[in-house]
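Q: For a teaching handout, I want to show students what a protein-ligand complex looks like in token form. Below are the inputs, and the small molecule is manganese (II) ion. Please produce the holo structure.
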Amino acid sequence: MVDFEQPLNLEHEYLLDRDCTTLSRHVLQQLHSFSADAQDLSALMSRIALAGKLIARRLTRAGLVEDALGFTGRTNVQGESVKKMDVFANQVFISVFEQSGLVCRLASEEMEKPYYIPENCPLGRYTLLYDPIDGSSNVDINLNVGSIFSIRRQQGEDQDGTAADLLRHGHDQIAAGYILYGPSTMLVYSIGKGVHAFTLDPSLGEFILSSENIQIPTHGPVYSVNEGNFWQWSEPIRDYIRYVHRHEGYTARYSGALVGDIHRILFQGGVFLYPGTVKKPEGKLRLLYESAPLAYLVEQAGGKASTGTQDIMDVIPDHLHTRTPLILGSREDVELVESFIADRRRQTEEQTVLTSKG
Ligand code: AHG
Ligand code: MN
Ligand code: MN
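A: Here is the structure, written as tokens, with manganese (II) ion included.
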């Protein structure tokens, strides 16, 4: 017979308390409310978590399952080769939001136009923007990949079905985050009240709080960039990389998946760069479902996100798949990169004035 008069020992109490801090409970705690909006956000996050669990399950067994790995043979709207896992993960997010009454539109890297769920539209006031698999090149070799998500409230009626209201700055985001499929599956999110990380406990099938109120160090040792593009960058980016080569205390880390690289920087500090190149002056990364959600998250953790000349959060896209250069991470490190860009620009302007006078 259980003696309820006898208190549990402290360690059990601590562990049970920790295990009860699930993602949906955390969202409600953060909002201090059971209002309709709070319930919506909590339900949204639970569905995103379900998508994460479904994708993690397939990734875990990918080498053993028919048709999980490799290319589909198609290219997406970005002109990039589509992998079977991209298609699967894209569909997972659609499926978890069908009949949810929550999300009326989804927009993703893998779909040229927004996807409407008409039965949700009279109710669903939210839009989900997402990168279903970030770092697809890692999928076939069993390295870490991620999913990135952002939630925006629908502005107005979208009567012509063009989702033109999505072409707004990042301050419109009401929640953002990523799921990292690594040795553990982790979900990191913010609803504008700090950044919190959850680890999937497979025995419970629940994301359990593992780090609360993460603060990114103001400076860190890591610089994370594809140096194979060195000769395609503009001079100030090359100047910055020459600077880190010549100074002690820097170390390079680049995994090929933005989510993994940002996760490291969030906890340990440093800077991630995907600058423009000669061929692609806007860089590679897409604003609405890659750069803006991560900028929201990193700013919530006390860091900074920039194109090099403008805050990422202020950039207004001109179409759904707009790209921007991205410099993201510890405040001091991002500012240092920006200072190289500003210095070069000043020198060029001075040179132009001298030439025009001379
Ligand atoms: P995605 O797989 O969604 O297309 O994103 C890949 C992105 C990003 O995760 C990563 O940092 C970068 O592309 C890698 O690109 P490079 O191979 O050009 O370095
Ligand atoms: Mn990506
Ligand atoms: Mn992707």
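A: Two things your students might notice: Residues 234 and 277 are 7 Å apart (CA to CA). The two ends are 97 Å apart (CA to CA).
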